[in-house]
Design a protein that fits this description.
2 domains, alpha/beta, 34% strand, globular, 7 helices, 4-stranded mixed β-sheet, Rossmann fold, 7-stranded mixed β-sheet, binds S-adenosylmethionine, single chain
């Protein structure tokens, strides 16, 4: 039986089965998917949980063409990436579209935790801002980001591989500041806000992603770190941006930095 929901990354379907599922059942499902969904040419099984700072997971080959390279189209943009060596969530496609619609042509945008650059590329292509900086720690993801920028023929993106904590002080030294910072964080303890707040312009906007059951949890962590940085903010909007577990959500908080 085909699992009720599975991720499709263009040519690749990634299935997750209950632990007790027999190999023969998995292979049968995989073959069925190839038969029903003609655009899917590879079926993989997600064989462990998303782990660590890089948010990657292992897969096992089930059926079709033996590859881990996905070719995926979203919001009129093309992406190629290794599904095992990089993080990519097709579920954030709407988020990227919504954010791009808020951004103006004269903005300088910084995307932290940029992965293979889906936020940076959708924003650069749809909103056409002056420049988008894309910062990602994972070397494989950053290499894919560079290739994806070329694939989409975009001139207004700068990809920087490195830890946000080390990249931001370098930007500060160069006197670079941003009108907007997009923070599609992984579910990590650290907010990274004290760093982001060093390179945001006065009246700049931060689109911050946080995880929790209630919006108050996210507002509390923002308030704590904004205070630490000696900044003042005005919350513009808070919204759910997806489920990550039963009763646990990804939230997006948009706020203006007043000083
Ligand atoms: C949840 S993923 C988001 C990826 C991408 N924005 C997307 O939506 O596909 C978080 C990303 O942050 C990266 N990351 C984790 N810690 C980082 C750090 N200190 N500086 C820069 N990137 C980091 C991970 O490697 C991962 O690619």
């Amino acid at each position: 039986m085909i699992p009720k929901s599975f991720d499709v990354l263009g040519n690749i379907a990634i299935l997750k089965f209950p632990e007790e599922t027999r190999k023969s059942e998995k292979l049968k499902s995989a073959k069925q998917i190839l038969k029903v969904h003609k655009s899917i040419t590879t079926v993989l099984e997600k064989s462990d949980k998303i782990k660590g700072r890089l948010r990657t997971f292992k897969t096992t080959y089930l059926a079709g063409i033996k590859t881990k390279i996905a070719s995926y189209v979203e919001n009129g943009c093309r992406f190629r990436f290794d599904v095992e060596k990089t993080y990519f969530s097709p579920r954030l496609s709407n988020e990227r579209n919504q954010l791009a619609k808020k951004i103006k042509k004269n903005e300088k945008v910084l995307v932290l935790f940029a992965g293979v650059a889906p936020f940076a590329i959708v924003i650069a292509k749809l909103a056409k801002p002056e420049i988008v900086y894309s910062v990602e720690i994972n070397k494989n993801a950053s290499k894919c980001a560079e290739e994806n920028v070329k694939l989409n023929k975009l001139q207004n993106i700068r990809v920087i591989q490195g830890d946000s904590k080390k990249v931001i002080p370098k930007l500060v030294k160069q006197g670079i500041k941003f009108d907007r910072i997009v923070m599609p964080r992984a579910q990590l303890k650290e907010t990274f806000l004290t760093f982001a707040l060093k390179v945001i312009k006065k009246n700049g906007i931060i689109n911050y992603y946080g995880f929790g059951k209630q919006e108050s949890e996210i507002l509390d962590e923002i308030e704590r770190d904004v205070k630490k940085a000696g900044k003042k903010i005005k919350i513009i909007n808070i919204k759910k941006a997806g489920n990550i577990a039963p009763y646990k959500y990804r939230w997006r908080v948009d706020f203006k930095v007043l000083n």
